[in-house]
Fold this protein.
Amino acid sequence: QVQLVESGGGLVQAGDSLRLSCAASGLTFDTVTMGWFRQAPGKEREFVGRISRSGTNTNLADSVKGRFTISRDNAENTVYLQMNSLKPEDTAVYYCAALKIGGAWGRQYDYDYWGQGTQVTVSS
C-alpha cells in the first residue's frame, strides 16, 4: 500500500531553518505531483506548496514564498521542504500528500494519500 512518511520536524527559534523530508513507497513516485500542507492549532489545513512530477515546476503559498522551497529526488522517492527564516506563525503540523491523477494541486481534497505529519514549532 501507499505510505508517505514525513520527518525532520522539531522545535526551533525564529529565523532558523529546517528541512522536512517525505519518503514515499507503494507508488510510482515520478508520476505523482507531490504537495505540502500544514495545519496550525485551531486552524484549517492549508496549502504550502507543490512540486511537479519531474521537479521542474513548483508553486508556493504567498505566505512562504521567498522562504520555503520544495524539491524532490525521484531516485530516492523523496520530496523535501526546505524552510528558511522561520517565523512563529509557521508553527504547525506539516503533511506531505500525493495528488491524484488529473487533480488540481491547490485543492487538498484532490490528494489521495497523506502522511502522518511532522510537528514544526517556532519559538519567538
Observations:
- The longest strand covers residues 18-25.
- The CA atoms of residues 6 and 22 lie 4 Å apart.
- The chain has a mean pLDDT of 97.
